Amino acid sequence: MSQKTVLIVYAHQSPGSFNAAVRNVTVKALEEQGCRVIMSDLYAMNFRANATYDDIIGDWKNPELFQYGEETMHAWKEGRLSEDIVAEQNKIKEADLVIFQFPLYWFSVPAIMKGWMDRVLTQGFAFSLEKMYNNGVFKDKKAMLSFSTGAMPTMFRPDGINGDINVTLWPLQNGILHFCGFQVLAPQIFWCPVHSPHVARTAMLEGWQARLKGLFAERPLTFAPCEVTHSWHF
Ligand SMILES: Cc1cc2nc3c(=O)[nH]c(=O)nc-3n(C[C@H](O)[C@H](O)[C@H](O)COP(=O)(O)OP(=O)(O)OC[C@H]3O[C@@H](n4cnc5c(N)ncnc54)[C@H](O)[C@@H]3O)c2cc1C
Q1: What pLDDT, in 10s, does the model give residues 56-107?
Q2: What residue owns the CA closest to ligand 1's atom 15?
């Protein structure tokens, strides 16, 4: 098997956090398997989350009305995207697998990670009107969410107070990752480490370490069938 490259997009402020411990386990286990691991430690990089004019070098195509999606698509085609975006896009190009590691914030990723998605997954680079979902740009790559919660698992059941976790994850897993073509692996969820005893947290880390051994052989999740014709006409 050829060497796999794994990109970890990581969002936690504290090196002593549970998420940092998960990240460290991931790096060690993957490197022991012979993988090459590259990292985007978003807070440490002070990664800018806002999608703004500054993402484009040079003149805008339409100075009358700034449309971020259009302008960044042209800038990508013409090599005029800002340096920090290009650096992240190059990491995705190298990666066979992208792991997003984060604490769940407001039923989603922390803003700094959402900003990474907004800014790095540029139209043209990550998707187009022709290339999306099963036919998406990254169809030969895998991606997954690995995150911790404050909630207990029972709270995220279909009959729980938060509702089904799969509903919470649909926009991220289907609307972003699968939309860009990634084969999405089942999420790794670390339930409520803050209120778990140390021994339970250790067991969660060991469970993840064991899963990592077979990660590349896992079957991806399935989403809505793509045979259904879609149209951009309203
Ligand atoms: C803005 C915001 C929004 C939020 N929204 C939600 C939400 O919508 N839904 C939800 O469920 N939660 C939510 N939360 C809670 C959040 O998801 C949790 O606080 C977070 O997931 C906990 O992860 P952590 O890495 O920060 O834990 P930490 O607090 O860093 O760690 C938990 C414990 O693990 C210990 N630990 C560290 N390393 C190790 C190790 N190697 N082995 C064993 N133990 C270790 C730490 O010492 C600590 O005692 C939100 C929090 C914030 C701030």
Answers
A1: 999 999 999 999 999 999 999 999 999 999 999 999 999 999 999 999 999 9
A2: 150
Pocket of ligand 1 (CB under 6 A): 12, 14, 17-19, 21, 103-107, 148-151, 193-194, 198, 201-202, 205
Q: If you ran DSSP here, which 8-state letter would residue 107 be given? A: T
Domain assignments of the chain as residue spans, ordered by start:
5-217
Q: Quote the CA–CA distance of 38 and 119 in Å, as a whole number.
A: 19
Render pLDDT for 181-219 as a digit per residue (tens, 0 to 9).
999 999 999 999 999 999 999 999 999 999 999 999 999
Residue 143 predicted with pLDDT over 90 = yes
Q: Tell me how far the alpha carbon of residue 156 lies from the centroid of ligand 1, in angstroms.
A: 16
Q: Give the number of the atom of ligand 1 that is nearest the alpha carbon of residue 19.
A: 25
Q: Does the pLDDT of residue 49 top 80, yes or no?
A: yes
Q: Which of 233, 113, 135 is nearest to 179 (CA)?
A: 135
Cα–Cα distance between 219 and 222 in angstroms, integer?
Answer: 9
Is 5-217 a CATH 3.40.50.360 domain? yes
